[in-house]
Amino acid sequence: MKTNYIIKIGLFGFLPIFIGGFIYIINRTETILFFNWIKAVQMENGIKYIRDLFGNYHLSEWIKFNLPDLLWVFGFTSVMLIIWKEIQSQVKMLYIILPLVIAETSEIVQYFIPTFGTFDFKDIIFYSIGWILSILILKTINQLKNEKQITTSI
User: Fold this and answer.
1) How many domains does the chain have?
2) 72 lies in which domain range?
3) 127 near 70, Cβ under 8 Å?
4) Which of 21, 61, 90, 95 could serve as a FRET partner for 32 with CA atoms 20 to 30 Å apart?
5) Segment 98-121, tens digit of pLDDT
6) Are 81 and 134 in contact (CB under 8 A)?
């Protein structure tokens, strides 16, 4: 049970976030906030190596600019859904909607305060898609698992 829990968090939570970060590393300019975090943890040399190795691949604009947003919200939402799956609480829905609220609020702030980034309405759409996909995929997996348990117990 515990191993399955860790695998789900890794596969549906951390892997999408890692892939989104990887897309940023290889294709985005070093002026974005993400690279300040890289400098803060002193990983510039490793990141430079990765950029040199993979930087020649040119991704389409939506993959480069919007897909990482979808993946981050997907991963964050998935972690919340997995953690809160068995817990009955009135605040459960707040934690599940938290990734979407944080993402979309940060995008709206960029509209009013451009120094925090560049507002893009497509990002809001991709955040929403990531949130919805996370819910639908994990709900489907849980339903399939429940159906399998019912049929094997007969």
Assistant:
1) 1
2) 2-152
3) yes
4) 95
5) 999 999 999 999 999 988 888 999
6) yes
